Sequence to fold (397 residues):
Amino acid sequence: MKGLSLIVTALEASADDLGASLAASLRARIDGPLCLFGVGGAKLAGEGLESLFDPRDLAILGAMEAVAVWPRVRARARRIGELAAQVRPDAVVLIDAWGFSLRAAHAVRRSSPSTPIVKYVAPQVWATRPGRARTLASAVDALLALHDFDAPYFEREGLWTRCVGNPVLSRPVAKADTESLRAELALPSEAPVLLILPGSRRAEVARLAPVFGATAARLKQEAPKLETILAVAEPVEAEVRDAVQAWRVTPRIVVGEARRWAAMRLATAALACSGTVTTELAMAGCPMVAAYRLDPPTYLAARALLRSRFVSLINVAAGRFVVPERLQGECRPDILAADLRRLLNDPRAREAQALAQSHAIARLGGRIADPAGAAADALLEVIARRRGDQPRVSSGA
Fold:
């Protein structure tokens, strides 16, 4: 294929990772240039995308925030449609962010009807709102799903779906350099280490950082030798550093992917915002407690709609509560400290949970060695079919 132009939308850090990896894999598969347009963070910027706006402005969480920014969501979705009419890309790739992606898809469909629209990462219809499968099928032309268990929901609605694998499962977490990080942070070799990961969205940090800080203070008071590391997602680094000013403990702060993985490997236990990092922690062999808070209206709505017993993907894969999930009213310093105390003080409890987490990772798959390459091949196939070309033979996964 002689070069491509794509519109990509990636509002969150994990989506930015996916988009950048997809772009790099596409460049390795085409003969001409890859021109990127749309919205993304630092990693997509490194691939040449000049973002239309700061994606953090729309990385919303909860019903109250959604209402507050609704006019902005609509306006910026329209801008994606206008951009599609202007550049006539070979495809539009909408990564994650269900609400914005759906509105952007409708805007593109109106402004550039012949442009194929691809959703990358399926909404979790196995957990809640199965009707979203039909809604998505009516809005986009193809879906790149991360897990095999996603596909049937969308294929039943007639949506072309390809499982491309979860790139988290191919990250070299287990090879992270723990000794260099230990030396850099001057961590005593015998000291227990609590790793804290407060999320990658502003709202997550605002709701969880005070609770996580109070939890760490309780544990530190009980065990003065306890060391605390705070792994910070780059998009919210300023917010996390501000929040830590109110903590009664002073954590060692690490920023960046490689240092986060190293911290996961050397930590005795972790307290994490429920999300992608829980899968990484399981891959690193680090036992954890997952926590989450939403605004009350959103939580009540989610509880009414939830079809799964679990929030963490590790627990979904295991079919049981391998990882403690402390949500909403249970996301309290006393409860979190009790969960973590067991892991910090009992080696057998740590070993048992780490082993169960490892078994859950095995159930998630990982059979696709190069998820980004598989996604690139699937996208090129979608584009070739729309052009009427012969679909490209996969050279990736």
Notes: Residues 390-397 have pLDDT under 50 and may be disordered. Residues 183 and 189 are 9 Å apart (CA to CA). The chain is about 50% helix and 15% strand.
